[in-house]
Write a structure and sequence with these properties.
This protein is mostly helical and about 250 residues long. It has helices spanning about 1-25, 25-40, 50-70, 75-80, 90-125, 135-150, 155-165, 175-185, 200-210, 220-230, and strands spanning about 175, 220. The protein folds into two domains: about 1-115; about 135-240, Orthogonal Bundle (Recoverin, domain 1), CATH 1.10.238.10. It has a two-stranded antiparallel ribbon.
Length: about 250
């Protein structure tokens, strides 16, 4: 986190921002341009509403780090704001690095807790699956599908592991958003009808509908297993790193 904060702040606030201010003869434009470039550097180039929101959010963070630089800047602040100098003062840069590092540590902490919670849920669910139907019909369908397709226990365990890991709201189902997020996170080679990778939400919804027997627009573990078997090749390669012994 510290190394990321140092390198990115030196690059975006220490080098780019004052030089962009010089180029545009306007410090506000320098701040805006460097913040936008910061956002673009953290963008996944995935054309979607969610991706656009993340781009906006990262640009906002870049703007906040730029403000830290300017607020704690030293004697060179006045010359920076008239856009005629590219001097970098250490005080402002250290402030931006500190703010960036604190943000990264908090993001790492939150991500760690989120992943740890999801792993714990996955482990529990492999031992004691969540009750999504009172009569146990879903698990019975899993056994029937496994028997019909002669699936070994290792494949079933891996499929269940992936399913519960994708079930981020821990309700016993995987919806289109969770499935697409998993395809993005684990680098699936699956492409959409327009050749996009990962597939669009419309394509992911169509995938779910193709096996959604109860038409609730989300997958239970049996429907997820059917989807896995429908996909070409070995769809579990994308998440093989998730396999562990509970």
């Amino acid at each position: 986190s510290l190394w990321t904060g140092v390198t990115e702040e030196v690059a975006f606030r220490g080098c780019l921002m004052p030089r962009l201010a010089e180029m545009f003869h306007s410090a506000p434009l320098g701040v805006a341009a460097s913040s936008l470039l910061f956002g673009l550097a953290h963008w996944s180039f995935d054309v979607s509403v969610e991706s656009a929101f993340l781009l906006t959010l990262q640009t906002f963070y870049g703007f906040c780090f730029a403000l830290c630089y300017l607020l704690f800047d030293g004697p060179g602040t006045a010359t920076l704001w008239d856009g005629t100098t590219s001097d970098v003062t250490l005080t402002g840069l250290l402030a931006a690095i500190g703010a960036h590092t604190l943000y990264d540590f908090r993001a790492f902490y939150d991500t760690h807790n989120e992943v740890a919670g999801q792993v714990a849920y996955t482990r529990r669910s492999l031992v004691s699956p969540p009750e999504v139907d009172a009569g146990g019909a879903v698990l019975e369908r899993v056994r029937d599908i496994a028997s019909e397709n002669e699936l070994d226990e290792g494949f079933l365990t891996l499929t269940k592991t992936v399913f519960y890991y994708l079930d981020t709201n821990q309700d016993g189902y995987v919806d289109s958003k969770e499935l697409r997020s998993g395809l993005c996170t684990f680098g699936s080679s699956l492409r959409g009808t327009d050749g996009s990778q990962p597939p669009s939400m419309r394509d992911v919804s169509a995938l779910i509908e193709s096996v959604d027997e109860d038409a609730n627009q989300k997958l239970d573990i049996a429907e997820f297993l059917e989807l896995v078997l429908k996909m070409e090749g070995n769809p579990m390669v994308m998440v093989s790193s998730l396999l562990y012994t509970p």
